[in-house]
Amino acid sequence: MKYYLIAGEPSGDALGGRLMQALRQKDKKAQFFGLGGESMQAQGLKSLFNISELAVMGIAEVIPSIPRILHRISETIEDIKLTKPDAVITIDSWSFSARIHKKLRNMNLNIPQIHYVAPQVWAWKKKRARTMYKYIDLLLTLFPNEPKYFTPYHLKTVFVGHPVIESTLVNGNTEQSFKKNHEIPQKNRLMLVLPGSRHNEVERLLPDFLQTVKLMHNKYPDFSFVIPTVGTVAKQVHQMVKASELPIMVIEGEENRRDAFHDADVAIAASGTVALELAIVNVPHIIAYKVPKLTEWIARRFIHIQYVNLTNILLSREIVPELLQESCNPANIMSYLEQFIANKPLYHHQMDGFDKVRKLLGMGEQKPSDNAAATIINFIKKKQ
Fold it and tell me: Engineered SS bond to 60: which of 45, 48, 51, 292, CB 3.0-4.6 Å?
């Protein structure tokens, strides 16, 4: 069968890469088309255009990008019409994906329309759950509590599991020492710096993270510093690190990233899936995040959740400190890092919480990508 997959940002791209691999195992003659990044291209996808163009977040950033994004949506629709796939599968990025699905539905092409990763209607825009059935035929969710928000509104919804439990961070070869491979003294401790995968995230967060590295380097000379980055922002990260003149290693690639996570002693990170990855491999960390004032003002009025970090949301309590907006500054970040370094109660509180997160995510059970691929193939066959 021909699958048209659309992932608009790196987190969806990673999910799409694993889904493609699982689909090919079950459908040996599978053909792939659409949009994706490094992970999906490694599985043989020739992306219609570079998805870094879509990697914007926040009201203030999105508005200037609207004309370009609308053009790319039209281009994608035309490509789908030419390809005539057996299914269109969008992955995450619901704001972009929804526009694709609405246009396709209005054209009556009779192609099964599937979305992978439920929009977080439990946090905001709850009315979305009532209307999504108009535009998609099947929704795949990452968390077991999500189907209940959609099934009452006539949308077939299936929980398939969270991809973090099958990432290379968890299941890859961990015998390789990152320190050894990169000639870092074994006695040194390792700190990960993770400023996000979008240009605007890096622009806002990395300066504070770099200042924190400077404080750490001056006070704890036995620490080495690593920034695992992705292709969408690699050039920007390299330039900012070079300008800082700080002893920070910037790395790319899944193997390097996996090895760095397994050797890490502590981390600072932007909010997102990376928080779950750090929890899975037991790296104590804090989450720090900033958005423009306009985005903050809108978020405070429309988003109704106690926490922004997935680990805290899953456990309904703060396991990982969240330093947001003005609280996201080098002094605050440093104070929490020092608690981890000194093995204070916060460190043990996190380790206990991370163990609970792994159980909730179903580690040791069937791979989410296999569940997703089987669900998709069965659904398409029933529609044919």
Answer: 292
